[in-house]
Amino acid sequence: GDSVTQMEGPVTLSEEAFLTINCTYTATGYPSLFWYVQYPGEGLQLLLKATKADDKGSNKGFEATYRKETTSFHLEKGSVQVSDSAVYFCALSKAGGGADGLTFGKGTHLIIQP
Amino acid sequence: EAGVTQFPSHSVIEKGQTVTLRCDPISGHDNLYWYRRVMGKEIKFLLHFVKESKQDESGMPNNRFLAERTGGTYSTLKVQPAELEDSGVYFCASSQVVVSPLHFGNGTRLTVT
Q1: Chain A environment of B101 (Cβ under 8 Å)
Q2: CA A95 to CA A99: how far, in whole Å?
Q3: Does residue A98 carry a pLDDT above 50?
């Protein structure tokens, strides 16, 4: 079946450091890929998404590129802030660009220290 | 607009007891989803409602779990009787149509002792 694998952390970085959170997936066909973020005490929020190969999703300084050849969707940010501390979830969906029946990774806890 | 709201935010019950979780989706959202995250594991899909109908309940773990959405508005997820392995965070999400983004609630943290 479909699956998503991401580095589990916790990942601890200093403010202004470069961030990469790796995500790889296994799926048949052409899934849509997502990054969700959960800030402390809040629900999951969609951070960015990409629906086809070579698409780049971006939001709030975060970027991820859909790489079909490596089945990856790594999350990057050039300079992290303390406010980026959260749990990040990589996910895929088979439902034609939508979010029906998402398959999630285990989540990566990111801690940014001042 | 009000977001997806879930009640309670936390629940601690003993093994064998019954618990009912509630989810109020965003008004007008026909699609409602339940997900669960067991400690240290992936967030797993449980089921999907379209209005009051169960579109997909393939993720429901066993018959101790019962989800309803009477009238196509709020939904409840009942666990009866609860077991230790049911502990985790239960998320509800809604969307206007299947291809639109999901809006998640803050989750209900269930602890079974």
Answers
A1: 46, 49, 99
A2: 6
A3: no
